[in-house]
């Protein structure tokens, strides 16, 4: 295995006009991106403990320092979630000087908890995801991606195993304990590996609570923390009526294969049992990353009729009144039984296409119109913004 030398990969995300928030999991490359895109910006790095303590005691010192910065110069505030009170000062500066702010953070939870409203719409909200193949270029390796993930700080480490292992500990130390997101850290630590086992599955709050030895209410709160810290998402079920009543419980997907494997303390070679959910979850993250920059779809769900538990479609995208059904299989050959879900959803009004993504090399089309695409074809379509028929 050859580990790429540390460098700044070109990211898909382009700076929007005006001020904006940029959220993303810790280590996603937000600070590196900001330094590249805004090399002349004035920077407030709230990981600098001295600066943090100064502004914690006197937020007005932030405004005083801004007074010495030319109005046309952009201002980057890194780790903004550490000091939600600064948003009042930022809001005032935007209103009075029209200065451009770039606000970086790994969680919006404390900003929400503090009662802030993310500047009342005066700043857009962007999200940075782990590296995707279009950014990695020739460095992309599917096996390494599913084993260790593509968080830049892990991907470029000399020892990826050690890097992803320490990543979860850093997450617990700095993101959870450091930001005081939970009162009972041991309970949250028990919860993490249990929640990781549900990657790609319908969320069973009662089951997670039982296995983590905590309450259902606590588990609901912890799942919210995973979402607010951008580590995971709950993918809702499609609820329109299609012959039978659809299942309503969401599925849990972690944002990065490496993070979920480290959380469940399983960092050896990817097993056959893991490969499907890891591949499926990674495809979801790549789609979300491309959607962030190209607006490929407006909503995303999974589809699974409650009365036919063996039938489902992994992802259902919506753009306007059109839908695109996507099934994901981490294997090089496809049998007709693996097309069951895509055939069952054929009657959905507005369905524009059905695509199965697999790891084989041949692009195929069935007699009833289902497209079967190799992963490389799908990635190329995403990068070119051409996933819709």
Task: Characterise the protein shown here.
With 389 residues, the chain is α/β, with parallel strands linked by helices. The chain has two domains: 20-128, 3-Layer(aba) Sandwich (Rossmann fold), CATH 3.40.50.300; 130-389, no CATH class. The protein is 39% helix and 17% strand. It has 16 helices and 14 strands. It has helices at residues 30-37, 49-57, 60-66, 86-97, 109-113, 133-136, 142-148, 152-155, 160-177, 185-196, 205-211, 216-228, 257-263, 272-294, 340-344, 375-384, and strands at residues 20-24, 42-45, 75-78, 101-105, 124-128, 201-202, 232-235, 251-254, 299-303, 313-319, 322-328, 351-358, 364-365, 371-374. It has a six-stranded mixed beta sheet with strand order 9-10-11-12-14-13. Helix 15 links the parallel strand 11 and strand 12. Helix 7 runs parallel beside helix 13 and helix 9 (160-177) packs across helix 13. The radius of gyration is 22 Å and the shape is globular.
What does the secondary structure layout of this molecule look like, with pairings?
Elements: E1 20-24, H1 30-37, E2 42-45, H2 49-57, H3 60-66, E3 75-78, H4 86-97, E4 101-105, H5 109-113, E5 124-128, H6 133-136, H7 142-148, H8 152-155, H9 160-177, H10 185-196, E6 201-202, H11 205-211, H12 216-228, E7 232-235, E8 251-254, H13 257-263, H14 272-294, E9 299-303, E10 313-319, E11 322-328, H15 340-344, E12 351-358, E13 364-365, E14 371-374, H16 375-384
Parallel strand pairs: 1-4, 1-5, 2-3, 3-4, 11-12, 12-14
Antiparallel strand pairs: 6-8, 7-8, 9-10, 10-11, 13-14
Helix pairs in contact: 7-13, 9-13, 10-13, 11-12
